[in-house]
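Changelog note: in this version the structure field was regenerated for every chain. One regenerated record is shown below for reference.
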Amino acid sequence: MDVGIKILVVGCGNMGASHARAYHDLPGFEIVGLVSRGESKSRLNKSLQAAYPEFDDFEEALLQTKPNAVCISTYPDTHENYAIRSFEAGAHVFLEKPLADTVLGAQNVIDAAIKYNKKLVVGYILRYHPSWKKFIAISRKMGTPLIMRMNLNQQSHGYMWDVHRNLMNSLSPIVDCGVHYIDVMCQMTDAKPVRVSAIGARLTNDIPETNYNYGQLQLHFDDGSVGWYEAGWGPMVSQTAFFVKDVFGPKGAVSIVPNHAVREGVSDSVEAHTKTESIRVHHADIDVNNEFLKADEWIHLEDEPTHQDLCNREQLFFQKAIVEDLDLKKQSEDALNSLRIAFACDQAVKTKSIITL
């Protein structure tokens, strides 16, 4: 499908580079420029063995390249402004999560997409992963209420500690990463989220005094379902049990059981974060002697995409949304909902109180 979507890539770090590679390799996209404040755009050009135009300034790049679409993978405090300016310039937008660094800002982005009749796709990468889709589908069969336990702690060091410190100038880990897993929990139950509680701790002077690099949130639903998510960033973070993806209900349990993704030294690896490798399904049925009637099942899916594969799938969906004029209202509502809940959790940490949604 060669539709020639002219795309401007804004932000050339981890996610921006992955999305740029997708545009570079997939038919139907033409990169018209790379934008970053530092040298990442030049490194990206070199890694792609390309010579795409490079820009230091977003506004200048938007004016000169006149793109059909813009990919925004910058820090969250720029998302609102860059996305709205892109819509105003007549471009569709692929926006890395979170939508913005405030709930109001996120709503402003959605409103601008509607006003200018442009597509907005938010980078919820797990929605494109076949194993996570399976994980969610099986979880929905475990009855009500559900217990949802998830974390992603990262013993970040080197370059990734620079990335995390920069992120924490605007958001905490349970907001930046938590939106993914809040979104997953909301897909696992049709119940309404009603309140949140949370804890957090600041373990380093390398981040703003108003922020914290460890957090754990608890999400309560009106059917009795509960979920928690834990995220810590930094060189002091323990790698023991840093990857938990586990759900259980009256009928049994389902868990993502990784292998290579939890080996030593990979907790801050972007590639490891989307690994599933296998899914374990446990059935709660017992006989008169309280012995299990069914053995646990192990599901090994053949389609285990790499992080780059998932980025490619995201961009193929973005392309499809533009070409086929897909209705993305539900996706936008879901992205706003998960961000709204995440910020309520952030408020719960800072006020040491339970927040009603």
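Spot check on this record: The mean pLDDT is 94. The chain has twelve helices and 15 strands.
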